[in-house]
Amino acid sequence: MADARGGRAHVTVVLGRELHGEVRLDVDAVVVGTGAGGAMALRELARAGLSVIALEEGGFHQPKDFNQREEQMLAMLFADRGGRVTEDLAIRVLQGRGVGGSTVHNTNLCKRAPSEVLDAWAERHGVEGVRPAELAASYEVVERDLRVSEIPASMVNANNDVLRRGAAALGWRHGPLKHNRVGCQGSGFCELGCVYDAKQNALKVLVPEALAAGGRVYADVEARAIRSAGGRVTGIDAIARDGEGRRIADVTVRARVVVLAASAVGSAALLARSGAPDPYAQVGRRLRMHPGAVVAGTFAGEVAAHLGVPQSWECTELLDFSPGAEQRTWIVPAFAHPIGTAATLPGFGAAHMTAMRGYRHLAVLTAMLHDETEGRVVTGAGGAPVLRYVMSEADRASLARGVVGCARLLFAAGAREVTIPAIPPVVLRDARALEGLDTSFVRPYSVPLSAVHPMGTLRMGRDPRVSVVSSTGEHHHVRGLFVADGSLFPTSLGGPPQLTIYALSHHLSRHYVAAARG
Amino acid sequence: MSLSRRRVLEAFGAALVAGGVGLAFVRSRGYPAVPGPAPSALDRSRYALVRAVAARVCAPDAAGPPSADDVDVAGFVDAYVSKMAGPQRGDLLKFLDFIEQLAPAMTLRAASRFTRLSAGDQDRVLAALEASEVDLLRGGFAGLKALVFMGYYRDPRTWSVLGYEGPSLGRTVPPWPMRVGGVPT
Question: Does any CB of chain B come closer than 8 Å to the CB of residue A384?
Fold first, then answer.
């Protein structure tokens, strides 16, 4: 199953199309999902000498499969072919699907969870063992393994430099970000998968290490139900699909331990449709997503924001982690390739095309909300996840402050015009226009909203009445059933979650490894 | 006005049924044949509607850029829709029917299919959807617009409008550690 080539072990991923009829697998542990949390779980279980497999609903795609074409990569790498939205169509939700999960398409931002947030998890939500000092060791492992480093000044592109200059001019809090890239070519296509294999992510680092240690990955195999008996988990029922999505095999996995790591959407939907005990109706509740809105600035000179590392600088001036704070937005650059830009700019027809002609002169920032709205993941037709999320007025107002903040930053950096892509569009030619601006138009449906960080639907905590799993990640009512992804978060994070998902899964591994050993 | 997605889509369907199955049947005739291979997901009327919407959404601002037909936006949308999950595909098809059969009456008080309106009236209908008081219509239009632009800006012939270089492929890709295949026994 493994050989050596080019100094690296070759290992195998099993594809759904290779399976036929009824397949029965008997292992110590099965992991559902292969993103940050799942790949870490797979590796740690395999390294512990346990027999472990991971089931991945999506396909197995390698850098040679990535072609930097939006219309093809969105369909290949994202849930619902890139078309996932909240039930009311108000927020587009971009989530990874396939081996490596969202780490394949994300922009590689690596930031530890704010100490205020982790302390709040301990003090307000009864989570034990996750204070900053307690998570530090796991963060260090992840940062070492994924070769996390500060993005050097030489890799700060013009769009990010706009944010840097704007924040500096305003005297706002700002700074460089860290990432997990090595050998970056600066092509700017991170969100479509890195063809240069520079991302040190779950796909490149953790999954191969897990497979080399004896773990197995089954791609295009969708977990449909968690099986349990007598208060203990017993395994997973799954179906294998061919490359066209047709069901071709039934897969039954018997295992002492099941680790859910299919994202805050997928894990919650799987648990909900499995009918696991949920006496306090907690499964799927408290969905948070960091919904964001963009603001575009037009500059006299060329920005060419699509080239280079997409996100290397942040502004945290408007980010207060106190619960209920008025300022709860994290500001980072957010440029897109042509299709994404066209979908975001307001209007259509000739005027829209004229606006698109300014593509190379646009800088775009996003205000990403550290949200307190409590959405929910439920199941719809065929057990598919349905995302219910109606933004609270407090969150809407905070997002509006962030949008205005983005506009201020763009003007401070020298934008000659700032557009908030509302319907109708709000076009400003001077920062003074922001004084007293009625921002009630900043709301769902009026401005395009997107979210890339679903979290919090199976949250951890001491009290089973308000949480789904304990501080060990184990389900309150089903022994041997663990969660190891962003579903665990009791609150939203206010920053990029991947590092914390990797680290939490690593931190909890001693518990699921011990349970798998029996 | 905020309504649940399901209720509004059901209302679209009910309006189409109660308000004019017979009329819709009569009005379903007269659509041009689809050029090229038969569509996978769109019937003749929906294909014509997508072509008409794409022509307005991607209307060039000057001579030179390709038209939506030049880059076969409708063909792309048809292929995309054919791979959508059932519920989403059903919702989108209902929305297309709504635009064709009901939106002109709501917006212009005109008893006409969308595809038979003048370009100016089609723009008015689409602008009304984009700014509709009914949130779901706004959301539906935004989704359709994104899909149409995906069909348009996917084509390299449109990139010169933006000064977009396109993919940077062509450099050496490092060796990859995993291979596909081989079910373990």
Answer: yes
